[in-house]
Design a protein that fits this description.
Number of helices: 1
Distance between the termini: 17 Å
Strand order of the largest sheet: 1-2-12-11
Strand content: 35-45%
Radius of gyration: 14 Å
Shape: globular
Length: 120
Amino acid sequence: MTLSTETGARVRVCALSDLEVERGRAALFGTVQIALFLLADGSVHAVSNLDPYSGAHVMSRGIVGTRGDVPTLASPMHKQVFDLRTGECLDTQGKAPATLRVWDVTVNDGQIELNIEEIR
């Protein structure tokens, strides 16, 4: 998916119906890759597709889960676990702490939108 329309400071990423529950999708904005996730509760999360530990753009292929009431994403590379709400790494697998960049998501008339200023 690529940038298609802008509304003020927001950009339409895709339709909510383009996402599958607990399956990641990647979106490209210039050189910035964003991983999008639709959770079973209907919430949508957007984080960097770049795995801070491996340096690979693979987070959209990560494993969605929970820790208590915290929605999580496990890296498909080395299995570090991140909080989808904050990007904080909850399980570093013995590595130094790292975080995923997180974007605020709005769903407007069935369309997923992000703040374009935050992407740059």
